[in-house]
Design brief:
By secondary structure, this protein is an alpha+beta fold. The chain is 49% helix and 16% strand.
Length: 379
Protein backbone atom coordinates (compact mmCIF):
# COMPACT_ATOMS: atom_id res chain seq x y z
CA UNK A 1 0.00 0.00 0.00
CA UNK A 2 1.40 3.38 -1.04
CA UNK A 3 1.35 5.92 1.78
CA UNK A 4 -1.16 8.78 1.62
CA UNK A 5 0.76 11.78 3.02
CA UNK A 6 -2.24 14.09 2.61
CA UNK A 7 -3.83 12.40 5.63
CA UNK A 8 -2.02 13.32 8.83
CA UNK A 9 -2.60 12.09 12.40
CA UNK A 10 -5.63 14.35 12.92
CA UNK A 11 -7.29 13.01 9.80
CA UNK A 12 -6.45 9.43 10.72
CA UNK A 13 -8.20 10.01 14.05
CA UNK A 14 -11.16 11.61 12.28
CA UNK A 15 -11.35 8.64 9.91
CA UNK A 16 -11.41 6.24 12.83
CA UNK A 17 -14.30 8.17 14.40
CA UNK A 18 -16.28 8.20 11.15
CA UNK A 19 -15.66 4.49 10.60
CA UNK A 20 -16.82 3.56 14.09
CA UNK A 21 -19.90 5.77 13.77
CA UNK A 22 -20.88 4.08 10.52
CA UNK A 23 -20.17 0.60 11.89
CA UNK A 24 -22.38 1.23 14.92
CA UNK A 25 -25.10 3.56 13.63
CA UNK A 26 -25.51 2.61 9.96
CA UNK A 27 -24.16 -0.82 9.01
CA UNK A 28 -26.51 -2.84 11.29
CA UNK A 29 -29.57 -1.08 9.84
CA UNK A 30 -28.67 -0.71 6.18
CA UNK A 31 -30.43 -3.90 5.06
CA UNK A 32 -33.68 -2.62 6.56
CA UNK A 33 -33.12 0.78 4.96
CA UNK A 34 -32.80 -0.99 1.61
CA UNK A 35 -36.31 -2.34 2.17
CA UNK A 36 -37.55 1.06 3.36
CA UNK A 37 -36.00 2.89 0.41
CA UNK A 38 -34.31 5.46 2.65
CA UNK A 39 -32.14 5.81 5.73
CA UNK A 40 -33.42 7.19 9.03
CA UNK A 41 -33.53 10.86 9.96
CA UNK A 42 -31.96 9.89 13.27
CA UNK A 43 -28.78 8.97 11.41
CA UNK A 44 -28.60 12.46 9.93
CA UNK A 45 -29.16 14.08 13.32
CA UNK A 46 -26.50 11.93 15.01
CA UNK A 47 -24.04 12.71 12.23
CA UNK A 48 -24.76 16.40 12.68
CA UNK A 49 -24.13 16.19 16.42
CA UNK A 50 -20.73 14.59 15.82
CA UNK A 51 -19.64 17.07 13.15
CA UNK A 52 -19.77 14.64 10.22
CA UNK A 53 -22.12 16.83 8.16
CA UNK A 54 -20.76 19.86 6.31
CA UNK A 55 -17.33 19.79 8.03
CA UNK A 56 -15.93 22.37 5.59
CA UNK A 57 -18.44 25.05 6.56
CA UNK A 58 -17.11 27.92 8.69
CA UNK A 59 -17.75 27.59 12.41
CA UNK A 60 -20.22 30.49 12.33
CA UNK A 61 -22.53 28.27 10.27
CA UNK A 62 -22.11 25.12 12.35
CA UNK A 63 -19.19 23.53 10.54
CA UNK A 64 -15.64 23.09 11.76
CA UNK A 65 -13.91 25.14 9.09
CA UNK A 66 -12.03 22.06 7.91
CA UNK A 67 -10.61 21.58 4.43
CA UNK A 68 -11.99 19.13 1.89
CA UNK A 69 -9.84 16.25 3.17
CA UNK A 70 -12.33 15.81 6.02
CA UNK A 71 -15.16 15.50 3.54
CA UNK A 72 -13.04 13.04 1.56
CA UNK A 73 -12.77 10.85 4.66
CA UNK A 74 -16.56 10.74 5.07
CA UNK A 75 -17.04 9.96 1.36
CA UNK A 76 -14.47 7.16 1.44
CA UNK A 77 -15.72 5.53 4.62
CA UNK A 78 -19.32 5.46 3.39
CA UNK A 79 -18.14 3.82 0.16
CA UNK A 80 -15.77 1.44 1.91
CA UNK A 81 -18.60 -0.02 3.98
CA UNK A 82 -20.99 -0.17 1.04
CA UNK A 83 -23.47 2.18 2.74
CA UNK A 84 -24.81 3.58 -0.49
CA UNK A 85 -28.06 4.79 1.06
CA UNK A 86 -26.33 7.58 2.96
CA UNK A 87 -26.62 10.87 1.08
CA UNK A 88 -24.26 12.91 3.24
CA UNK A 89 -21.76 13.75 0.44
CA UNK A 90 -24.34 15.38 -1.81
CA UNK A 91 -25.73 17.37 1.12
CA UNK A 92 -22.36 18.42 2.56
CA UNK A 93 -20.18 18.76 -0.50
CA UNK A 94 -22.50 19.70 -3.35
CA UNK A 95 -25.43 21.65 -1.90
CA UNK A 96 -23.62 23.41 0.95
CA UNK A 97 -20.81 24.78 -1.27
CA UNK A 98 -23.37 26.34 -3.63
CA UNK A 99 -25.00 28.22 -0.77
CA UNK A 100 -21.68 29.17 0.80
CA UNK A 101 -20.24 30.42 -2.50
CA UNK A 102 -23.26 32.16 -3.99
CA UNK A 103 -25.78 32.66 -1.20
CA UNK A 104 -26.67 35.93 0.46
CA UNK A 105 -25.92 36.51 4.15
CA UNK A 106 -29.58 35.84 4.93
CA UNK A 107 -29.62 32.60 2.94
CA UNK A 108 -26.48 31.36 4.67
CA UNK A 109 -27.81 32.20 8.12
CA UNK A 110 -31.17 30.57 7.43
CA UNK A 111 -30.03 27.32 5.85
CA UNK A 112 -26.41 26.40 6.58
CA UNK A 113 -26.68 25.87 10.37
CA UNK A 114 -29.70 23.61 9.84
CA UNK A 115 -27.75 21.64 7.26
CA UNK A 116 -24.77 21.21 9.57
CA UNK A 117 -27.01 19.95 12.38
CA UNK A 118 -28.99 17.55 10.18
CA UNK A 119 -32.24 19.41 10.85
CA UNK A 120 -32.51 20.15 7.12
CA UNK A 121 -31.70 17.48 4.55
CA UNK A 122 -30.93 18.84 1.10
CA UNK A 123 -30.91 17.87 -2.57
CA UNK A 124 -30.12 19.45 -5.91
CA UNK A 125 -32.61 19.12 -8.76
CA UNK A 126 -30.92 19.29 -12.14
CA UNK A 127 -32.07 16.25 -14.13
CA UNK A 128 -35.39 16.28 -15.94
CA UNK A 129 -37.23 13.53 -17.82
CA UNK A 130 -36.01 15.05 -21.09
CA UNK A 131 -32.70 16.56 -19.92
CA UNK A 132 -30.02 14.50 -18.23
CA UNK A 133 -26.40 15.43 -18.85
CA UNK A 134 -27.57 18.24 -21.16
CA UNK A 135 -28.22 20.96 -18.60
CA UNK A 136 -28.96 23.46 -21.36
CA UNK A 137 -32.02 21.38 -22.18
CA UNK A 138 -33.75 22.14 -18.87
CA UNK A 139 -37.44 22.97 -19.37
CA UNK A 140 -38.46 23.98 -15.83
CA UNK A 141 -39.20 27.69 -15.63
CA UNK A 142 -39.14 30.33 -12.90
CA UNK A 143 -40.82 33.50 -14.11
CA UNK A 144 -40.56 36.70 -12.05
CA UNK A 145 -43.86 38.17 -10.87
CA UNK A 146 -43.44 41.01 -8.41
CA UNK A 147 -41.51 39.90 -5.36
CA UNK A 148 -41.74 36.18 -6.25
CA UNK A 149 -40.81 33.75 -9.00
CA UNK A 150 -43.45 31.28 -10.19
CA UNK A 151 -41.74 27.89 -10.53
CA UNK A 152 -43.12 25.19 -12.81
CA UNK A 153 -41.63 21.92 -14.02
CA UNK A 154 -40.54 18.47 -12.97
CA UNK A 155 -37.30 16.74 -12.04
CA UNK A 156 -36.30 13.10 -11.78
CA UNK A 157 -33.54 10.89 -10.32
CA UNK A 158 -33.10 13.33 -7.42
CA UNK A 159 -30.87 11.96 -4.66
CA UNK A 160 -32.22 12.68 -1.15
CA UNK A 161 -35.44 13.67 -2.90
CA UNK A 162 -37.93 12.03 -0.55
CA UNK A 163 -36.26 13.29 2.62
CA UNK A 164 -35.24 16.73 1.37
CA UNK A 165 -36.37 19.83 3.25
CA UNK A 166 -34.50 22.16 0.91
CA UNK A 167 -33.72 21.71 -2.78
CA UNK A 168 -31.56 23.73 -5.14
CA UNK A 169 -33.66 23.81 -8.32
CA UNK A 170 -32.24 24.51 -11.76
CA UNK A 171 -34.77 26.48 -13.84
CA UNK A 172 -34.96 28.86 -16.78
CA UNK A 173 -35.66 32.48 -15.87
CA UNK A 174 -35.35 33.38 -19.55
CA UNK A 175 -36.38 30.36 -21.66
CA UNK A 176 -35.25 32.11 -24.86
CA UNK A 177 -31.65 32.69 -23.71
CA UNK A 178 -30.31 29.13 -23.63
CA UNK A 179 -27.62 28.54 -21.00
CA UNK A 180 -27.55 32.27 -20.19
CA UNK A 181 -31.19 32.07 -19.09
CA UNK A 182 -30.53 29.43 -16.40
CA UNK A 183 -30.80 30.28 -12.68
CA UNK A 184 -30.65 28.39 -9.39
CA UNK A 185 -33.25 28.70 -6.61
CA UNK A 186 -33.43 27.59 -2.99
CA UNK A 187 -36.83 25.92 -2.68
CA UNK A 188 -38.27 24.54 0.55
CA UNK A 189 -40.23 21.33 0.22
CA UNK A 190 -42.99 22.57 2.54
CA UNK A 191 -44.05 25.28 0.10
CA UNK A 192 -47.41 24.95 -1.64
CA UNK A 193 -47.20 23.42 -5.10
CA UNK A 194 -44.03 21.43 -4.36
CA UNK A 195 -44.86 17.72 -4.56
CA UNK A 196 -42.64 14.70 -4.18
CA UNK A 197 -43.40 11.85 -6.53
CA UNK A 198 -42.62 8.21 -6.03
CA UNK A 199 -39.44 6.96 -4.45
CA UNK A 200 -37.87 5.37 -7.53
CA UNK A 201 -37.01 1.66 -7.44
CA UNK A 202 -33.47 1.27 -8.69
CA UNK A 203 -31.19 -1.62 -9.66
CA UNK A 204 -28.77 -0.65 -6.88
CA UNK A 205 -28.38 1.96 -4.14
CA UNK A 206 -31.68 0.71 -2.80
CA UNK A 207 -31.42 2.50 0.55
CA UNK A 208 -30.89 5.85 -1.16
CA UNK A 209 -34.12 7.80 -1.61
CA UNK A 210 -34.19 8.89 -5.24
CA UNK A 211 -37.29 10.74 -6.33
CA UNK A 212 -39.33 12.58 -8.85
CA UNK A 213 -40.12 16.18 -7.88
CA UNK A 214 -42.96 18.30 -9.25
CA UNK A 215 -43.43 22.08 -9.12
CA UNK A 216 -46.85 23.53 -9.86
CA UNK A 217 -46.96 27.32 -9.56
CA UNK A 218 -44.63 27.29 -6.56
CA UNK A 219 -44.20 30.83 -5.26
CA UNK A 220 -40.49 31.24 -4.63
CA UNK A 221 -39.52 34.48 -2.86
CA UNK A 222 -37.23 36.60 -5.02
CA UNK A 223 -34.65 36.56 -2.25
CA UNK A 224 -34.30 32.79 -2.74
CA UNK A 225 -32.61 33.25 -6.09
CA UNK A 226 -29.08 31.90 -5.65
CA UNK A 227 -26.59 34.49 -6.84
CA UNK A 228 -26.60 38.22 -7.35
CA UNK A 229 -28.66 38.19 -10.55
CA UNK A 230 -30.65 35.99 -12.89
CA UNK A 231 -28.85 33.95 -15.53
CA UNK A 232 -25.86 32.90 -13.42
CA UNK A 233 -26.98 29.30 -12.93
CA UNK A 234 -25.03 27.63 -15.72
CA UNK A 235 -21.79 29.32 -14.64
CA UNK A 236 -22.42 28.32 -11.01
CA UNK A 237 -23.03 24.70 -12.03
CA UNK A 238 -19.84 24.54 -14.09
CA UNK A 239 -17.76 25.99 -11.25
CA UNK A 240 -18.92 23.38 -8.75
CA UNK A 241 -18.87 20.27 -10.95
CA UNK A 242 -15.14 19.42 -10.50
CA UNK A 243 -15.69 18.82 -6.78
CA UNK A 244 -18.69 16.60 -7.53
CA UNK A 245 -16.61 14.56 -9.97
CA UNK A 246 -13.77 14.31 -7.46
CA UNK A 247 -16.31 12.84 -5.02
CA UNK A 248 -17.06 10.09 -7.51
CA UNK A 249 -13.36 9.34 -7.85
CA UNK A 250 -12.94 9.15 -4.09
CA UNK A 251 -15.93 6.87 -3.62
CA UNK A 252 -15.00 4.69 -6.61
CA UNK A 253 -11.50 3.95 -5.36
CA UNK A 254 -12.63 3.31 -1.78
CA UNK A 255 -15.26 0.91 -3.10
CA UNK A 256 -12.65 -0.85 -5.26
CA UNK A 257 -10.31 -1.26 -2.31
CA UNK A 258 -13.08 -2.71 -0.16
CA UNK A 259 -14.22 -5.12 -2.90
CA UNK A 260 -10.65 -6.27 -3.41
CA UNK A 261 -10.24 -7.06 0.30
CA UNK A 262 -13.56 -8.92 0.47
CA UNK A 263 -12.56 -10.96 -2.57
CA UNK A 264 -9.05 -11.70 -1.36
CA UNK A 265 -10.44 -13.02 1.93
CA UNK A 266 -13.07 -15.06 0.09
CA UNK A 267 -10.66 -16.81 -2.30
CA UNK A 268 -8.38 -17.74 0.60
CA UNK A 269 -11.23 -19.64 2.26
CA UNK A 270 -13.33 -20.91 -0.66
CA UNK A 271 -12.16 -24.25 -2.09
CA UNK A 272 -12.53 -25.86 -5.50
CA UNK A 273 -11.03 -29.17 -6.59
CA UNK A 274 -9.66 -29.63 -3.09
CA UNK A 275 -7.70 -26.42 -2.76
CA UNK A 276 -8.38 -22.73 -2.08
CA UNK A 277 -9.36 -20.73 -5.16
CA UNK A 278 -6.38 -18.45 -4.46
CA UNK A 279 -4.06 -21.32 -5.48
CA UNK A 280 -5.22 -21.18 -9.09
CA UNK A 281 -3.06 -19.08 -11.39
CA UNK A 282 -6.05 -17.33 -12.95
CA UNK A 283 -7.19 -16.11 -9.53
CA UNK A 284 -3.74 -14.83 -8.59
CA UNK A 285 -3.27 -13.08 -11.94
CA UNK A 286 -6.70 -11.43 -11.77
CA UNK A 287 -5.97 -10.20 -8.26
CA UNK A 288 -2.54 -8.93 -9.32
CA UNK A 289 -4.07 -7.02 -12.24
CA UNK A 290 -6.72 -5.46 -10.02
CA UNK A 291 -4.19 -4.54 -7.36
CA UNK A 292 -2.05 -2.71 -9.90
CA UNK A 293 -5.00 -0.79 -11.36
CA UNK A 294 -6.40 0.11 -7.94
CA UNK A 295 -2.98 1.34 -6.79
CA UNK A 296 -2.63 3.47 -9.92
CA UNK A 297 -6.15 4.78 -9.40
CA UNK A 298 -5.43 5.67 -5.79
CA UNK A 299 -2.44 7.76 -6.88
CA UNK A 300 -4.55 9.54 -9.51
CA UNK A 301 -7.37 10.28 -7.06
CA UNK A 302 -5.04 11.55 -4.36
CA UNK A 303 -3.23 13.79 -6.82
CA UNK A 304 -6.56 15.25 -7.93
CA UNK A 305 -7.52 15.77 -4.28
CA UNK A 306 -4.23 17.61 -3.79
CA UNK A 307 -4.95 19.79 -6.82
CA UNK A 308 -8.43 20.52 -5.51
CA UNK A 309 -7.08 21.61 -2.13
CA UNK A 310 -4.85 24.05 -4.04
CA UNK A 311 -7.86 25.17 -6.15
CA UNK A 312 -6.15 23.84 -9.29
CA UNK A 313 -8.41 20.92 -10.25
CA UNK A 314 -9.66 21.96 -13.68
CA UNK A 315 -12.78 20.74 -15.47
CA UNK A 316 -11.04 18.40 -17.99
CA UNK A 317 -8.94 16.71 -15.30
CA UNK A 318 -11.98 16.21 -13.08
CA UNK A 319 -13.81 14.75 -16.10
CA UNK A 320 -10.94 12.36 -16.76
CA UNK A 321 -10.98 11.29 -13.12
CA UNK A 322 -14.73 10.72 -13.07
CA UNK A 323 -14.71 8.69 -16.29
CA UNK A 324 -11.61 6.61 -15.54
CA UNK A 325 -12.34 5.85 -11.89
CA UNK A 326 -15.95 4.84 -12.47
CA UNK A 327 -14.92 2.65 -15.39
CA UNK A 328 -12.32 1.05 -13.13
CA UNK A 329 -14.95 0.52 -10.45
CA UNK A 330 -17.13 -1.32 -12.94
CA UNK A 331 -14.28 -3.61 -14.02
CA UNK A 332 -13.20 -4.35 -10.46
CA UNK A 333 -16.71 -5.13 -9.25
CA UNK A 334 -17.31 -7.43 -12.20
CA UNK A 335 -14.06 -9.36 -11.64
CA UNK A 336 -14.75 -9.64 -7.91
CA UNK A 337 -18.24 -11.02 -8.52
CA UNK A 338 -16.73 -13.56 -10.93
CA UNK A 339 -14.18 -14.69 -8.34
CA UNK A 340 -16.97 -15.16 -5.81
CA UNK A 341 -18.75 -17.50 -8.24
CA UNK A 342 -22.46 -18.06 -7.65
CA UNK A 343 -22.26 -16.50 -4.20
CA UNK A 344 -21.18 -13.24 -5.79
CA UNK A 345 -24.66 -12.97 -7.28
CA UNK A 346 -26.41 -13.37 -3.92
CA UNK A 347 -27.73 -10.13 -2.40
CA UNK A 348 -26.60 -11.20 1.08
CA UNK A 349 -22.98 -10.88 -0.02
CA UNK A 350 -21.65 -7.31 0.04
CA UNK A 351 -19.95 -7.75 -3.32
CA UNK A 352 -23.33 -8.29 -5.02
CA UNK A 353 -24.70 -5.04 -3.63
CA UNK A 354 -21.48 -3.18 -4.42
CA UNK A 355 -21.64 -4.47 -8.00
CA UNK A 356 -25.22 -3.21 -8.39
CA UNK A 357 -24.44 0.09 -6.68
CA UNK A 358 -21.43 0.77 -8.90
CA UNK A 359 -23.22 0.82 -12.23
CA UNK A 360 -24.75 4.28 -11.83
CA UNK A 361 -21.36 5.89 -11.20
CA UNK A 362 -20.82 5.94 -14.98
CA UNK A 363 -24.11 7.77 -15.48
CA UNK A 364 -24.67 10.52 -12.91
CA UNK A 365 -22.70 13.76 -12.55
CA UNK A 366 -22.52 13.69 -16.34
CA UNK A 367 -22.31 10.41 -18.23
CA UNK A 368 -18.87 9.06 -19.04
CA UNK A 369 -19.56 9.78 -22.71
CA UNK A 370 -19.99 13.45 -21.78
CA UNK A 371 -16.76 13.28 -19.76
CA UNK A 372 -14.92 12.08 -22.88
CA UNK A 373 -16.45 14.92 -24.86
CA UNK A 374 -15.25 17.45 -22.25
CA UNK A 375 -11.73 16.03 -22.42
CA UNK A 376 -11.78 15.91 -26.23
CA UNK A 377 -12.78 19.58 -26.45
CA UNK A 378 -9.79 20.51 -24.28
CA UNK A 379 -7.24 18.80 -26.53
Amino acid sequence: MIARPLFDADLIGFRDSVRKFLENEAAPFHRQWEKDGQVSRELWEKAGELGFLCPTLPEEFGGSGADFRYSAVVIEEIARQGLSGIGFPLHSDIVAPYILAYGTAAQKERYLPKMASGEFITAIAMTEPGAGSDLQGVKSTAIRKGDHYVLNGSKTFITNGQMADLVIVVAKTDPSAGAKGTSLFLVESAWEGFEKGQNLEKVGMKAQDTSELFFQDVMVPAENLLGSAEGQGFFQLMQELPQERLQIGLSALAACEAAFEWTLNYVKERKAFGKPILHFQNTRFKLAEMKAEITAGRCFVDRCLELHLDKKLDIPTAAMLKQWSSDLQGRVMDECVQLHGGYGYMWEYPIARAWADSRVQRIYAGTNEIMKEIVARSL
